[in-house]
Amino acid sequence: MVTRGDTMTVRSADLADCPGIVKVAEDSGEEFSTDDYLIGRPPQGWESLVAVDEASSVLGWLEGTLDGHVADHLAHPAHPPPHAYIHAMAVAKENHRRGIGRQLLAEFVRRARRAGLTWLALTPMDGAGKEDRALFFRAAGLRCVDPRGPNQGMVAELAELLPSSTAGASPTKGDR
């Protein structure tokens, strides 16, 4: 499925997107593993999504799995595996607060629901900006497993995450 916003499209990454994904990952200031993209090959068996503008420039990227078994502390007995898990997500800094991250997340959630999954987990990256990342995911409906903060991970029941009526909503505080 392709999701279209006012000036962007969210879709599966292809070979031509690899240099843009590496650039967004590097520009984010985080330490993402982009080895597969450096050699022009998105990871096999993973969902690799990009948000692109009209010129096909990569504005943001999300990488996750739809067939995972999350760590015990992220699991929920009412939601047996497989689980959806977000491994990486980045939006170019100059494009923060335009709803790009929300659109990437919404497309990943749609794909997870379509695959019959009911549970999503992630662990926000450490480092500068961790609180902003946690705010973004909280605004989208994820909750921290540990009430003291996101260090131990964040989870959500897919049925309650990003209702379709808000998938294309304007960016809110914490949106990337």
Automatic annotation (TrEMBL):
Q: Report the Gene3D superfamilies cross-referenced here.
A: 3.40.630.30
- Which CDD domains does this chain map to? NAT_SF
Q: What InterPro entries does the record point to? A: Acyl_CoA_acyltransferase, GNAT_dom
Pfam families per the UniProt record, alphabetical: Acetyltransf_1
Question: Domain of life, per the record?
Answer: Bacteria
Q: Where is the N-acetyltransferase domain?
A: 8-163
Q: Can you say what this protein is called?
A: N-acetyltransferase domain-containing protein
